[in-house]
Amino acid sequence: MHRLASVCVALVLSACSSAPPVRVISARDVVAEGGAVVSVDVIASRVGAEILAKGGNAVDAAIATAFALAVTWPEAGNLGGGGFMLVRMADGEKAFIDYREIAPAAATPTMFLDADGNVDPVRVRLGYTPVGVPGTVAGLAEAHERFGSLEWAELVEPAYELARDGIPISDALAASIEAEQAELALDPEARRIFLLDDGTYRRAGMRLVQSDLAESLRQIADEGPDAFYRGAIAESICADAQSRGGLLTQDDFARYEAKVREPLGASYRDHVVLAGPPPTSGGFVLVSALRQLEGFDLKALGAGSGEELHLIAETLRRAFLDRALWFADPDFVGVPVADLLAEDHIDELRASIDPVASTFSDELAGDLDGTLIVDESEQTTHFSVVDSEGNAVANTYTLEESWGAKFVAAGTGIVMNNELHDFNPQPGISTTKGRVGTPPNTIAPGKRPLSSMCPVLVFGPDGRLKLIAGSPGGRTIPSTVLRVVTGVIDHGLSPRAAIDLARVHHQLFPDELVLEESHTRPANAKLESLGHVMRSVQRIGDAHCIGWDPILKRYVASADGRRAGSAAGVVPIEE
Ligand code: DON
């Protein structure tokens, strides 16, 4: 505990410094005067903003927020999962920190199949088979080593206290526990922590204490990432895995490395978009769609018009075909990203779009047969951070499904991912329902499953940071981000207005246009008349963004609000 104790002394000292007095405020939208954090959870956003108020930079705040979300938003915030952090410092340095999970050494391409060669619906989702070696702690440590300015322990400390002392359960967390209670009840540890003795679930306003998680966080604070990958936590998780027929070993943990990759950069109109390279496909799908859209005047068509939504859907359809054909972990498979974004290829895709008729996916895809869809839930979580210097972080991380593999590794308090579910589970079988069985993304030891996560930073013509964005939503993620980015760039909207635009999604298979039900009737009628098969859903994504507000001439952090969310910012105390 002595590192935590020294942090407390440091906090008292810094409170006595001569820095101008500031306080942290939280709301749905916050003008980011002294920096801001926006996430799905108000407590976690405030933890990040408090770090900014203490003089930490955007990366420090992002690390503290990520640890806090592991306590306050256990359905997706995590220590037992993985994700991507996109960083751009005010001095121009940038990095894409890839902390995606990896398949254990004993993983095989057919491990999710039953004796008949079909995907076993339980093995692919629940228990230890779909669990990848978690990357979150390594990713946050890598970010800290490269960019952090405060002590590591100081960034873990708030999460430790929240787990130890308990949090009030929010409406959103209560709804999440309720939604998953049947599967959480199957695991004795998850049941003990998140459900009540009588088998019902914990409700809003009750207190949630997570003592085992607090102890894991204390070890991570004191010993750094080695506690997780080489120490007591790895030992406990692997012992639990072995007792439940899992594949994870301590060697798998010791071998885990976060990777720092060059962000995928592209121009769109007179802006620069920075996004993620493989092993996520999210950045590529976003950029491919944007480059195709560059040939059309979206502004003239109007945000949310049937004509505009048709073009967005058609560009996504084509980007998703390239995704299925080529995308996977680039350390295992050559992914020709530059060729797929080259002018001639994009021109060809654009030329194949009929502005007055939808394309049939099976005609476009040729012999990429369709497949059973593995349903993708709405979980994962994205948060955005900016500090007073203009350093920016877009971070999306996940357990894959809501509550991952729906269990807690015994003795650790850590909810485990089911990320290996993102590999193509049945090699060779693709279907019109959405399953992809193309070769690149098959399971192999040490390989990262293909992702759709899409943290993004956008810069204006003057080089000024204009938008920090991202979202959960499985394959709908790049579609959500595309709607926000085109809202800001093409339609000149504030981040708030761009977040509030009704969203649209197409992923090639199933061949359907998914629309939020808030779309206008004329837009729906137009899309139907163009030949789209439409499916209406209540909501798509959850994009917590920070952006330059053209009217206020300030950065504003805006929570999405489709599920929950809050921004927290640092503001001066008026004397
Ligand atoms: O990495 C991915 O793309 C998925 N595992 C993310 C999962 C997700 O967003 C779940 N649904 N919202």
Q: Care to give the gist of this entry?
A:
The protein has 575 residues and is of the alpha+beta class.
How is this structure best described in words?
The chain is an alpha+beta fold. The chain has two domains: 43-258 and 378-441, no CATH class; 261-364 and 451-560, Gamma-glutamyltranspeptidase, large (L) subunit, C-terminal domain (Serum Albumin, Chain A, Domain 1), CATH 1.10.246.130. The protein is 36% helix and 17% strand. It has 20 helices and 22 strands. The strands form five sheets. It has an eight-stranded antiparallel beta sheet with strand order 1-22-3-11-12-4-5-8, with helices on one face. The protein has a seven-stranded antiparallel beta sheet with strand order 2-21-20-16-15-10-9. Helix 20 links the parallel strand 18 (513-516) and strand 19 (534-537). Helix 3 packs antiparallel against helix 4, helix 3 packs parallel to helix 5 and helix 12 packs across helix 16. The model is unreliable at 1-16 and 369-376 (pLDDT under 50).
